[in-house]
Each structure stands twice: as structure tokens, then as C-alpha cells.
Design goal:
The complex is a heterodimer of chains A (321) and B (350). Chain A is mainly alpha-helical and 321 residues long. Chain A is built from twelve helices and two strands, in the order ααββαααααααααα. Chain A has a two-stranded antiparallel ribbon. In chain A, α4 (112-127) crosses α6, α9 (230-246) packs antiparallel against α12 and α11 (272-279) runs antiparallel to α12. Chain B is α/β, with parallel strands linked by helices and 350 residues long. Chain B has 14 helices and 14 strands. In chain B, a hairpin with a 2-residue loop joins β13 (342-343) and β14 (346-347). In chain B, α5 (124-132) packs across α7 (167-179). The A-B interface holds A 67-72, 138-139, 142-143, 146, 170, 172-175, 252-253, 256-260, 268, 278-279, 281-284 and B 63-70, 156, 158, 163-165, 187-195, 197-202, 209-210, 213-215.
């Protein structure tokens, strides 16, 4: 070895030309991450401060009071909270099986030449602005629901003893059920793309060995693919649930904007996001504080859903590796 | 070579820009306003004609009375528009001057196949009960009583109201409070109320859309929306017990009896006025400007726009079934402008 090489090898690390760039990049990455945390904390704190008058006036019962009276200045968040939970539940009940089916179709059953077009079409659904969904819902879907779907539901499911109460009442066409249907259409693309990507990561050896043992396509899906990717699938559902909870414009058009809580899914209701969209512009004083208190509750709700999802995923991955 | 070109172009460019400004004679002013959806059709029509005449653009956004009030209070717009007049206290607190701009009528619209506009007759107490949720079907005896001879179907009534704060709601709820003691007691009147029944639509436009989509629906909208969307309106019983149609002469009859000096800030409610031809749900709509104007030129343009519309916009307003203000009232309003609207101590009108 020549002297030059030994000297070159003993050059100090701090003399390395890329060192400054490294430090700069690391520093800015750190600061962006901290910025996000600061932003989150800032939103939380400003929401709490603005919502304080409502919590001070009504206390914790604000969460389970269903009055919303701007004339007498008495407000309660139960009706929007109920509507948010119910419409998101309907969205997940409809969206989860459908998206599972689409994802499985795309990865297992679809002929190769159709895969790209169908995937692109589904991803384009995510690009549709939510207000367009709302307008389409009001002008196209709501009359269809009113004339055909809801009367059919009332006549069939409405007659079954226990779940019948969910499908009673006059068919308005708009309401929590229609809002749930539109929400399921909006969260579908997210669930499908995540699940499709996750299904594609299943190692071909696992698949082929299952097929080699004589399993049918259905058995392979049930026993190999879905269990292998359960972590990603659950993550997809939770992400979509978070989206469905907060969706505003699409829901405002079709939810019916009524503050009465009824057992039927076909009744009009309101969600936290829709009540904010309707009333925020001209609310002030206690009404404004109550609206922001609702917003804070939604924040807490979404946070806990995502937190619960992370926790569940952690336990699942620990259990199954 | 480059420098020569630039040296030549610079004065030419300045000349072009100066010419642009000089072109319209006076410089074109852009004014923004926000507020009530009730008078939106007529303000847009007036603004279009005014711009053709003077090159000043009046940009009006119908975001709702409550939002309009908030925006003029925080000075984000040059004028606010509200269907619910502010009280003297509210006007003084925020240094606002209020004046009426136009008068219109609120009509009940229904969606019943086979029923023609003006065929159904309703009275105030029945409408109040429908909106309370006590009357739920179109063939209820109370509705049949005022409609002998009309075949009313056995359809459920879908009540449609406003989901946002609205002066139209204020005027409608004030009318219901006057004709039904139960409504006054349980619900009251404000720009937003706790609706006992029904579904909500955003804006006059939202209510029109919902009524058109839903068979058996009833809603309340400003007459211009009912006509432009070719909807089925009803006759109403007025203060004197007679059924009247929602037409221009009946709105004018209701407005003719008003005493505009009786309330500070012209805050007169025109609901349920006496007179055999008076339409019971007539309402005036108001403009708000600051008494101490932040931008003298823009506030002067607002006053100029309304002065022009009062004098030249009458036919345009009547085409849309709004009642233009009588000349005596316009003189009173302009006197108020001269005495109350100032910038740096100097009156902005004339």
C-alpha cells in the first residue's frame, strides 16, 4: 500500500465534503416533523379555547343533550354526534365488503389486461371533489333512493322484527342512510388501493403452495391471502373510517339537516361536519362556541379511532409477526 | 441593442397603462357586499345594469343574512345585506347605518303532482301546525277545510326548512309567531330556530331543490326562486281573512301601509299587514354600511349604486316580483345617508 492511500484512508470524518449537507438535511427533516406536532397541538389548543364558553355553560352534559335551539341559546352535541357515528357505520358496513371484493377481484380473478383500467378507474373516484359527490347525491341519488330503494327497504327489511326499526318512516330520499351510501362511495378508492397493494405483497410461494395442495381460489383467499395481510387490511379500514367521520360537503347536501334523533336510518339527521358547514358562517357567541365544541369532539373522536387502530395493529403484528 | 429596445418600450408601457386608466373616464371601483339570499336575484340584476352604465362592479355574495352582518361588522366587505333588521342598540354598537333596499314576498311552495300554482289555499295557523309536525298528511281535515273541491292526495307531508341562518327564516317565523300562539311559545322567531320537524336545505336554493325533489314536500322560499324554478306556490289567508295570490300588487298593498318612521333604522316588519289585498308574508330587506366609512370611495359607490337602482331599477325589480321602494321612502333614506354616513367627518352623500 502506498503512503497516499494510507493517508487517504486516515482522512477525518469531519473533512468529508457531504457532512454539511447531511447535517442540514437532518436538521430540516427534524424541524418539519416538530412543525407538524406544533401545528397539531396549536389546532387542539385553539379549538379548546374557543369551545370553552360552551363547556363552561353546559358542562359535560353537552355531549348527551340533543337540543339545538338558537332562539333560547341552548345547545347540545348529541344529535350531530349520533349522525356522525351512524353515517360512518353505514359507510363501513357497505364499503368494507365491497372493497374487499374489489381488491380480491383485482389481485386474484381479474384478467391481466383489465387490471390497469379498473384500478385507474377506482383511483379516479378518489379524485372526484366531495362537493360533486354531494350534488350528484342530491340531484341523482336522492330521487332514486326516494322512488325505488327506500320503499323497497321499508317493505322488506322494515318488516323484520329487530332490525325493522332501522328502516321505518316515510322515504325522504335524503337522510343518514343516503349519506352513508355516498360516504361508502368516497372511502372505497382508499380501501381498495391499500388492500390491493397489500394483497400483492403476499409471497407467490405461499399462494402457489396452497394451490398445489389442492385449495380452491376461495380457500386460498380465505386462509392465506387475507390472514397474511390482515394488518394492512385493518389499517385501510381505520384510515377510511377516519375520512368518513370528517367528510363535510358531500354529507351536508344529503343528510337532511335535522337535529332530531330517530331510530330509523331513513330519517334525516345531521353530522358534526354538516352542522358546522351550515351554521358556522353566521354563528356567534354561545352558538359559535358550541359549534367549535362539536368540532373538538370530532377531533377527539377521530384521534381515538386512529389511536385504537394503531393499538390494534400493534397487538396484531406482535401476535402474528 | 437590448438597452435601446427597453429605453423605447418603457415610456410606451407607461403610456399604455395610463391610457387604460383614463379610458373609462372615472376609475372603475370594485365594491364587495355579502348577505341575504332573499334579494340576491334583484341585486345581481341591478349590479349588471349598473356596471354597464358606470363601469363600477358590485360584487354581491348571497351567503346568508347572519354571515352578511358578521362580515360588515368586521369590515371584510363594503356593505352587508340582511333580511332581519338590526335593533337600534346593535346598530349603535357597531356603528352601522341601516336602510331598506327592496321589498319582496315569501311564498309557500309545494310538490304535489297534478296541483297547479295558486290552486291550494292555506292559512297561517295550518302552516304553523304543518311546521310543528302536528299535521302530517296532505288530506288532513284542516287543509281540506280551506280547499273544498280540490282533491288532496293521501301523501305524507315533508316539511322543508332552512338549515342555515337566514332572514327569510326570520320573516317566516315572525309571521308564524303572529298567527299561531303555540308556535310563538314553543319555537319563536330568529334567523335560525329549533325546527320541530322536517329536513333542512342550505339557502333559498337548497330549499327549492329539496322541494322539487321530494313528492309531498312543502317549503318557504322567496317568490323569485319559486318563479325562476317554475314551482307550485299556494294562496295564503291574510290578516283580513281573505285568500290572496302572491302577486306584485299584493306585495305592494302590504308595503303601502307601513310606517317607516315608526322604528329606528327603518326596522319595520311587514308580516301580516292589514288590507284586503295584502300578502301576509311580505318582507323588506336591508343594507348595512358603516356610519364612519373605512373606505370613502367604496362606500360612496355603494350609496351611488342604490340611488341609481332606486331611480332606474324599478322595472327590473318588478320583473322579478320585488316591490321597489316608494319615492317618499327613497327621499327619507337619502336624507339619512347625508346625515349619518360620513368619512373623516365629511358626509359621503350626495
Amino acid at each position: 500500500m502506498s503512503t497516499a492511500t494510507i493517508e487517504a484512508g486516515h482522512r477525518r470524518r469531519s473533512d468529508h465534503p457531504g457532512r454539511l449537507g447531511n447535517a442540514l438535511f437532518g436538521g430540516s427533516a427534524w424541524s418539519f416533523a416538530i412543525l407538524v406536532l406544533i401545528l397539531l397541538a396549536g389546532v387542539m389548543i385553539s379549538l379548546i379555547i374557543a369551545a370553552l364558553p360552551a363547556f363552561r355553560t353546559f358542562g359535560i352534559p353537552f355531549i348527551w343533550t340533543s337540543t339545538w335551539n338558537p332562539v333560547k341559546d341552548v345547545y347540545g352535541a348529541l344529535s350531530p354526534l349520533y349522525g356522525t357515528l351512524v353515517s360512518s357505520a353505514v359507510a363501513m358496513v357497505i364499503g368494507v365488503p365491497v372493497s374487499l371484493g374489489i381488491a380480491i377481484f383485482l389481485t386474484e380473478l381479474c384478467p391481466t389486461y383489465l387490471r390497469r383500467p379498473i384500478s385507474t378507474a377506482i383511483e379516479l373516484l378518489a379524485a372526484v371533489p366531495s362537493i360533486i359527490f354531494g350534488m350528484w347525491g342530491l340531484f341523482v341519488l336522492a330521487p332514486l333512493m326516494q322512488k325505488y330503494v327506500e320503499p323497497a327497504l321499508i317493505a322488506t327489511l322494515g318488516k323484520i322484527p329487530l332490525i325493522g326499526i332501522l328502516f321505518q318512516g316515510p322515504p325522504y330520499g335524503i337522510g343518514l342512510f343516503t349519506a352513508g351510501v355516498i360516504l361508502s362511495a368516497m372511502v372505497l378508492p382508499y380501501m381498495v388501493s391499500i388492500m390491493r397493494d397489500v394483497f400483492e405483497t403476499v409471497p407467490p410461494q405461499l399462494r402457489e403452495s396452497a394451490y398445489g395442495l389442492g385449495a380452491t381460489t376461495w380457500e386460498v383467499i380465505k386462509t392465506v391471502i387475507v390472514p397474511y395481510s390482515r394488518v394492512g387490511v385493518v389499517g385501510a379500514f381505520m384510515l377510511s373510517l377516519g375520512r368518513a367521520l370528517g367528510e363535510t360537503m358531500a354529507v351536508t347536501f344529503v343528510v337532511g339537516n335535522s337535529y332530531h334523533i330517530k331510530a330509523s336510518l331513513l330519517a334525516p339527521g345531521s353530522t358534526i361536519a354538516s352542522s358546522l358547514a351550515n351554521e358556522f358562517a353566521e354563528a356567534d357567541g354561545l352558538q359559535l362556541a358550541s359549534l367549535l365544541a362539536e368540532g373538538f369532539l370530532l377531533f377527539v373522536l377521530t384521534f381515538s379511532v386512529i389511536g385504537a387502530a394503531r393499538f390494534m395493529l400493534m397487538r396484531l403484528s406482535r401476535k402474528y409477526g | 441593442m437590448y438597452l435601446t429596445v427597453v429605453r423605447f418600450l418603457r415610456p410606451a408601457a407607461f403610456g399604455a397603462i395610463a391610457a387604460m386608466f383614463a379610458a373609462g373616464g372615472a376609475k372603475a371601483v370594485d365594491v364587495t357586499g355579502a348577505g341575504a339570499t332573499f334579494p340576491n336575484p334583484v341585486y345581481q340584476k341591478w349590479a349588471e345594469a349598473y356596471k354597464a352604465k358606470t363601469n363600477n362592479a358590485i360584487n354581491y355574495q348571497s351567503v346568508g343574512s347572519g354571515a352578511g352582518i358578521k362580515q360588515i361588522e368586521s369590515n371584510t366587505v363594503d356593505f352587508g345585506a340582511t333580511d332581519k333588521p338590526l335593533t337600534q342598540d346593535e346598530l349603535q354598537k357597531n356603528d352601522l347605518v341601516q336602510f331598506p333596499a327592496v321589498i319582496g314576498g315569501i311564498v309557500m311552495v309545494v310538490n304535489l303532482p297534478g296541483i297547479k300554482p295558486g290552486e291550494i289555499k292555506l292559512d297561517g295557523a295550518t302552516v304553523a301546525k304543518i311546521y310543528m309536525g302536528s299535521i302530517t298528511s296532505w288530506n288532513d281535515p284542516a287543509i281540506a277545510k280551506t280547499n273544498p273541491g280540490t282533491k288532496l292526495p293521501d301523501t305524507a307531508i315533508t316539511v322543508v326548512h332552512r338549515s342555515d341562518g337566514s332572514g327569510t327564516t326570520f320573516n317566516f317565523a315572525t309571521y308564524l309567531s303572529q298567527v299561531d300562539a303555540d308556535w310563538k311559545d314553543k319555537v319563536g322567531a330568529n334567523t335560525a330556530v329549533e325546527w320541530p320537524a322536517g329536513v333542512g336545505g342550505k339557502g333559498n336554493e337548497g330549499v327549492s331543490a329539496l322541494v322539487q325533489q321530494t313528492a309531498g314536500a312543502i317549503g318557504y322560499v322567496e317568490i323569485a326562486y319559486a318563479l325562476q324554478n317554475k314551482m307550485v306556490y299556494t294562496q295564503m289567508m291574510n290578516h283580513d281573512g281573505l285568500f290572496v295570490e302572491p302577486k306584485l300588487s299584493n306585495f305592494q298593498a302590504a308595503a303601502a301601509n307601513a310606517d317607516w318612521k315608526s322604528q329606528p333604522g327603518y326596522a319595520v316588519i311587514l308580516a301580516n299587514q292589514p288590507g284586503k289585498d295584502s300578502w301576509p308574508i311580505t318582507a323588506a330587506t336591508f343594507i348595512l354600511v358603516h356610519g364612519k366609512a373605512a373606505n370613502a370611495e367604496k362606500t360612496h359607490t355603494v350609496l351611488d349604486f342604490y340611488d341609481w337602482s332606486f331611480k332606474n331599477g324599478q322595472t327590473m325589480a318588478e320583473d322579478l316580483l320585488y316591490v321597489p321602494l316608494p319615492d317618499s321612502l327613497v327621499k327619507q333614506i337619502e336624507a339619512t345617508w347625508s346625515s349619518s354616513v360620513k368619512a373623516d367627518g365629511k358626509a359621503l352623500w350626495p
